[in-house]
Model the fold of this input.
Amino acid sequence: MAQTSFANETVLRAVTEKPLRQKWHPEQIQSFLFLLPSMLAIIIFVYVFIAVTFYISLSNWRTAVQDWTLREPLFATYGDLFNNTRFQIDLRNTIVFTLLFILLAVLLGLMLAILLDQNRKMFGIPLFRNAFLFPYALSFIVTGVAWRWIFNPETGINLFFEIFGVNALLASQGLDPLKPGWATDPSVVLQVNDALNVIIPGASDWRVALGIPVALIPVAIAATWQLSGFVMAMYLGGMTSISQEVREAARIDGASEWQVYRHVIIPMLNPVTISVVVILLHTSFKIFDLVISMAGSGPGFATDMPAIFVFDQMFKGTKPNLGTAASIIMLLMVAVIIIPYLRSQTRED
Amino acid sequence: MKTKILLLLIVLLAALAVGAVNAQDDGMVPVDESVTGDLEVFSWWTSGGEAAALQALFDSYAASFPNANIVNATVAGGGGSAARPVLQTRLAGGDPPDTWQVHPGWELLGQYVDPEYVVPINDLYEEMGWNDVVPEQLRDMMTRDGNIYLVLAGVHRGNGFWYNKPILDELGVTIGETLSVDEFIAIADQIVAEMPDVAPLCVGDSGIWATAQLFENTLLGVLGPEGYRGLWDGSVSFDSDEVKQAMTVYGQMLDYQNSDHAALSWDQAVDALMEGRCVFNSMGDWAYGEFVAAGMEDNVDFGWVSHPGTAGSFMVVADGFVMANGAPNEAANAGWLSVIGSRPAQEAFNPLKGSICARTDCDRELFGPYHNWSMDSFSADELVASVVHGTAAPADFQQAMNDAVTLFVVDRDVDAFAAALVDAVAASGFTEAGM
Amino acid sequence: MAAQARLADSHESSPIGGSRIGKVLTIIVLLMALVFYMTPVFIMVNNGLKDATNVSLSTMWNLPETWTGGGFVEAWDKLRPNMINSIIMALPATIISALLGAINGYLFSKWKFKGSDTLFTIMLFGFFIPYQSVLFPMVRFLQEIGLYGTTAGLVLVHVVYGLPVTTLIFRNFYANVPTELVEAARVDGAGLVKIFTRIMMPVSIPAFVVVGIFQFTNIWNDFLFGVIVVQNPDAQPVTIALNNLSGSFSVDWNVVMAGAIVAALPTILVYVFLSRYFVRGLLAGSVKG
Done:
């Protein structure tokens, strides 16, 4: 215990900031002025545009003809939205997908970063590093197609169950062959509708099954494949910035390599983890191209996502008010998650 | 007011550009060297036969208007999915291309005529004599309040039913001139019984439109052309018994589909048909191009018939071009529209595109056996409008129908399906507005 | 000095597990990961090398029968003209947004003032803006300032929408740089600008690498803004040409898959170039501490 405390002190000193919090020091005014152009650009490109978007969601604009009059009652489009079975399914999907994807991508990315960080001088490491990053370079539109082929139940990886004799073995035991439908499987496992019925009467009759849509799992795998290399790069970048002395100090104190990571490096990488989670959250909330080309909306909307809903309503159904309402709800969901998270993280600074 | 001035301008231009058309026997639009500048043509024909066909139109145009320059603004993606946001954003922003690709019917009327993004071209039709060669039922799909807005380049037949002939031969089944729903079900049951590894129906609905198209073809097959038309003018309700029966039949057909349907795109379903993993495929005749590309021989390796119950109807899936309101280069665009509507250009375009002419006087020799069959159907049968391809109903209904189909494919709940479509008709209100 | 060398040695010889078995396990895990990462790439390259008629789902695992380049030839011909447009757009947009992000991140982490954390949250929230639903106002605004239809307009859009994330990455990177460094420099009389250029910039190579990878990839692969903001087909980025490899109805999968690889080559070159600095950054890190 005493051995690691020294390391922790070092960490503490490195992470703790002593911001210059005197009241409006001249350099702080300078700081504010330097930030001003960026803030102005963001206010126009983000907040003014969102205001317009929000206005459209309250308007009568529901055909190709622009109609800027406000709808009566004002939030009627939001009522339509929440009564829309497809949007209800999308909300379930986006939550399930986000959890699966962020968990997988962070764990895999961190694991690879540690392995590469450990063996920086080993032969072939640059090759591994670039190979893991490679998928990130490819256009989502096409990688989705490759994954759709791989998860095709007839010709994809299911063939390996045949080749490796898994199905022969199952058949010899009188069992059905293993042939998952992957992204084409419309079933929802771990349904909680009945359990919810106790709290919310009628939940078991909902048309939306609350649970994990099986078809989302291969999509989460594909998204992890594409993004985890970048997560690895972010962690590697962070690890690179941690000076050797910090590690050595911990080692002198007798910490094992694992302990060095567990108690020193990973805690020091907390700011990187924030960046990683924010970026992955951004990807998962807005995911569009990959899903469109890999699985589409899926049977029974098993793989549908809010971004696809927004696109379909805005541009195919030409109902801008419904599409914009859905994107405002998505923004609110982000706000609910991200603002408390950032608050708690910045307080630790 | 603005529209009227434009109209006048177009009359003048058309008179200038194509005045001598009727005098020319070959139907070619006469050469006019006075037309200059860029002409931006916006389409989603980007690859393979489509791109070659579009190029044929450009070549025809260049032959008549050697001094104008075409800017080929293509944005690809299934049925123009990526092109839509681009086009809609540009139109809303007041920056239209000169002309763009449009389906007749509600896509034209709801999305471009109502917001006044396009202007009528009645006089062009008169000058070119198109009212005599373009079937009236087709012209009706492009007309509102007596004004016509679109020039078609070619027509696909949407209600094809393609099959793997060797497999049916093996089963001792011969398909005649027509196929009824009951006949199809009998054959499908025979396939299930005798060939457990082969699915009777090939579906590739990773893009939901493919199975929505199966549904609309089935609607047409069960209701017949009159009943089917009634759905769009409000005289037949989506919760009527006939419609529910059609939904039940559609559900039955889905029971026969290949298990990996959701993983396949429509063309991969055609591949599966050719490979003998499944037997029938309900698809527009762009599928024919896939058979030809794979070196399959008509009536040997594959055959076709109308989708069960739809013989005597021709489901129109047509593509045409419009005159933008405020087109940057109106003179060049009037020339463009006169060219694509002309016989020589359509005779060059359609064999490459795999469609038939949108006029009844094209040279049959230029087309193969399938397209001659389709041309017979085009001139003799009832022409009906497709929802899936944007003609029969407005975009919001089309989207709602796609959504309802997506849910039905899994839960097979006929009542919920019917209720969703009734709601969608009410929300959209198109049956009252009329086309 | 000697202690340092000894420590470096011990680092070398003690990977996780601290033994030979550990090293073997590491390699096995890395190889398994390699298979996972390369399988889809194999599918794309393998089918990209086939002729149009030989590409089909049922033969997706089979190697090409002929070695004539398959879809790569066509993909290269069709994509090459637009590659240069993408470079003209992506390089400046990446560099500008990285520099601005570095400045913002530095100010937000080392020169906090009352409300600066709130400003940061306001900026970061912009990262989540749903692009599809802001296209109409965006086009109107670009028209107002006369940049609609230009590459400069596209660069502007990418820079602005890149600001939140570049600022985030730099801010969180600089959080790890000891504040003592800043304070020591202030005692020596260095101002806000000088501290940034003399002290912060040199230590932030790894952050520039990460931001460079992220921004370049995103901007290079962007489709929506490219196709909306620039209408002239000759000036559009490569992603639009890539998208146009597939038709509205029929798709030559070999060309599409080959195209994806071809279109990604510049990005991959950037990775190979940048990721070497992960190693170099390590040396810089040990010197600075």
